[in-house]
Amino acid sequence: MSLTPRVVLWLVGVWLLVAAFALGVAAWLAGDAQARLWAERNRAEAAASATALARLPAEGDSRRQWLATRFARGDLQLLALRGAPHATLVEHRRDAASAAPGDVPAWFAALLPTAAEAAAPLPAPVASAEAAPLAPLAPSGAAGPGGADVPSVPAEATAAAPAAPAAAGIGPSPTLRVDVLVQARAADLQRLAWQVVRGVALACAAATLLVVAALVWLGRRWQRSLRAAVAQAQGLAQLQFVEAPEPRWPELGQLTRALNAVVRRLREQVAAQAEQVAALQRQAQTDAVSGLPLRGFFVSRLADLLADARLPAASLLLVRIPDLAGLNERHGREVADRLLAAVADVLLTYVERIPGAAAGRLAGADFALALPAAGAARETAAAIQAALAAAPAARLPGVRVVVGGCDGLRGLSASAALAAADSALARAEAGEDCVVEDRPEPGTTGARAWRELLAAALDESHVRLGAFPVVDAQGRLIHLECPLRVQVERGGEFLVARRWLAMAARSRLMPMVDLSAVNLALAAIAEDAQPRCVHVSPRSLASPGFARALLARLKAGGAHAARLSIEWSDLPDAATGAALREAVPAWRRLGVRVGVEHAGASPRSLPALKEIGIDYVKVDARHLLGVTDDEAARSYVESLVALIHGLGLHALAEGVADARQLEVLWTLGFDGATGSAVGLGEAGDVLSGRVEEGA
After folding, report:
1. CA torsion sign, 365 to 370 to 376 to 380?
2. Where are the alpha helices (H) located in 286-413, listed in sequence order?
3. Predicted TM-score of the model (pTM)
4. I need a surface site. Which of 169, 220, 401, 579 has the fewest CB within 10 A?
5. Are residues 444 and 660 in contact, defined by beta-carbon separation less than 8 angstroms?
6. For 428, which DSSP code?
7. Helix, strand, coil share (%) of the chain residues, nearest 5
8. pLDDT digit string (tens) for 575-584?
9. Can you tell me whether residue 612 is helix, strand or coil?
10. Which parts of 321-455 are beta strand (E)?
11. Cα-to-chain-centroid distance, residue 611
């Protein structure tokens, strides 16, 4: 039994004992009160009887008749006239009345005897002495030998008077004694006791309600504070660094204060580790002279920019220093490095000012700038050339900088975009210094027709899933990565995401896309029980009704949902982050695993993703470049995996190209990998190679 029920039971037991004690004391006080009342009535009646008898003549039967008449009134239980010692002259007695009144429960009358029943037993009848005349009786308390005597026994009251000369039928007696026992009025006495006990019971009941209300209120506050402390401790066990408000309870306040200190310390340690990983990332992916990303990393960023469904078009500019080798020979390496740094500073200005822009150093003399917009490439190229011309390092004799590029890039791969920009750069180097080519936009009608075809394909479920295995080091299947394919034209091929995803995003069809992927994955799991993973855009969660519809679909999937994984690729902003924090816990309660793909660009964001509730991180292939031969790249990847594991997450590798790279990744601690090295079919959705389902 947990602590709270034990405390509650203990408090209830203590209160019951207190209430029982109070009722017992009330019953005792009621009995004592009725005993005192009855004793007082006995004393008063005895004194009155003694006074009345003293006024009657001692001769004859007048006193005997008065006693009989007085007893006949029915309010006495015992009326006796005794001589001394212990000689009963006249005695009248009757059985005690014990019937309970109608407003007193029978069980209470049985538990609490009447005053007569509780009193000392009546004196036994004593044989009458010889007849002697009764002497005049003195009133109770009158002066004279053997004055009125009232015994101290609660159930008996007596009065005595001096003896008188003998009368006919009654022998001599020095002292006469009147014993009187008032008939117990059980109804009155029990009613009095019942009223006292009932009043105390009602007071106890009212106090009990107040105590229960206070305990409930205090218990809820205690439980709320205790649950917050438990949730914080459980979060720490899962490496979720959440600070909790300190409760007013001193004990829990000290505990929460200590846990908050641990949370802050761990968060600082993780942040420091993430900063170290970011430093290694810069070392592995950044050119030491210019501070710009190296070619491989820039090309991957360009590919992401061109594939970004939120952008209608992009621009690419190339900057070249044609005679960099001659500049080194004539002016020295230090001067050449200053010129390279000047070019980098100009390009970084655009990266800092334009969200989504990317710059990189492609080769010794070549630089690149990718912009997430179209229509301003020509002005940007002219501004870059003017800024470099004003730089001190570019004013040396023989220094020349040329710029070429393309505006309005759509639907191209990164290599095709680089080739087009390089063609313009070649023209610039041939003599024009700055050449920017425009690529024609598709017609509006074609875009509208494409959008309608895509919506119809989703409505009619002309979709299917690919299947790319993610395996562990032993070749066991972790899950099948299942990107959605769409048959845009009836009877045509099922197109991969890069062919239609941009149009789906611009047409606000992503909620339909994501629900279609989840429905297909759950149906496939129900058919073959293979674990699967689908992509869900965080922006879909912001669409009205999408989160509720997705959760309902997962619940309808039952046990199959426990074999599903959901992942996203975007770093959440404030809106999508809030939607994910609300949705992810509900998914995980159903057994769904949650992850982030294309990760690694920002190691500092991993702790925040962990707090959302993810289970694994899928590292983008661009961050794995050079891991087989470059020590700096290997150190960065190893530290990144250590950071992921330190957060209690699994690390998966994307786009593993060859077996040698895969073996290196296993030695660096990756928990799983996907790509051509783990066995993909030619079409990209047929499994090949040895893939075994894990336990």
Report:
1. negative
2. 295-307, 324-331, 333-353, 377-389
3. 0.59
4. 220
5. no
6. I
7. 50, 15, 30
8. 778 888 889 9
9. helix
10. 358-361, 366-371, 402-409, 434-438
11. 13
pLDDT the model gives residue 186: 58
Whole-angstrom Cα distance, residue 81 to residue 224?
Answer: 77
What is the Cβ-side half-sphere exposure of residue 428, based on CA atoms within 13 angstroms? 28
Q: What's the CA dihedral at 499, 500, 503, 508 to 10 degrees? A: -150
* DSSP category for residue 260: H
Q: Contact, 585 vs 235, CB < 8 A?
A: no
The answer to whether the Cα torsion of 304, 307, 310, 314 is positive or negative is positive
d(CA 233, CA 241): 10
Q: Which amino acid is at 592?
A: V
Cα–Cα distance, 515 to 94 (Å, whole number): 96
Question: Over the stretch 675-690, which tens digit does the pLDDT of each residue have?
Answer: 888 864 333 333 333 3
Dig out the tokens for 313 from the structure: 């078009």
Question: Tokens representing 97?
Answer: 């009345």
Let me know how long the chain is: 695
The secondary structure of 481-508 as a DSSP string is E--EEE--STTS--B-HHHHHHHHHHTT
Q: How far apart are CA 354 and CA 483, in angstroms?
A: 31
Token couple for 532? 């699967």
Q: Angle formed by the axes of helices 3-54 and 62-72, to 10°?
A: 150
DSSP helix/strand/coil, 234: helix
Closest alpha carbon to 513 in 537, 481, 495, 489 = 537
What the block records as the tokens of 512 is: 């339909």
User: What is the residue type of 211?
Assistant: V
Q: Confidence class of residue 526 from pLDDT cuts 50, 70 and 90?
A: very high
Distance of CA 531 to the CA centre of its chain: 28
Q: How far apart are CA 21 and CA 625, in angstroms?
A: 82
Rounded Cα–Cα distance for residues 100 and 486 (Å): 91
The Cα–Cα gap between 560 and 31 comes to: 73
Dihedral of CA 599/602/603/608: which sign?
A: negative
Give the whole-number percent of the chain exceeding pLDDT 90.
16
Distances (CA, A) of 246 to 258, 265, 415: 10, 17, 56
Q: Residue 446: CA atoms inside 13 Å, Cβ hemisphere, count? A: 3
Q: What is the DSSP letter of 150?
A: -
Cβ–Cβ < 8 Å for 412, 383? no
List beta partners, residue 471. Answer: 477, 673
**Is residue 219 within a helix (H) or strand (E), and if so which, with residue range?**
helix 186-237
CB 509 within 8 A of CB 458: yes
Look up residue 265 and give its two tokens: 């310390």
Euclidean distance between CA atoms 275 and 572, whole angstroms: 20
Is the CB of residue 622 less than 8 Å from the CB of residue 297? yes
pLDDT digits (tens, 9 = 90+) for 214-243: 878 877 777 777 777 777 777 777 667 777
CA dihedral 454→457→461→465, nearest 10 degrees, is -60
Burial class (CB in 10 A: 0-12, 13-18, 19+), 126: middle
> What single-letter DSSP state applies at residue 571?
P
Residue with tokens 């992509």: 535
In angstroms, rounded to a whole number, what is the distance separating the alpha carbons of residues 261 and 338? Answer: 47
**Count of CB atoms situated within 10 Å of the CB of 347:** 25
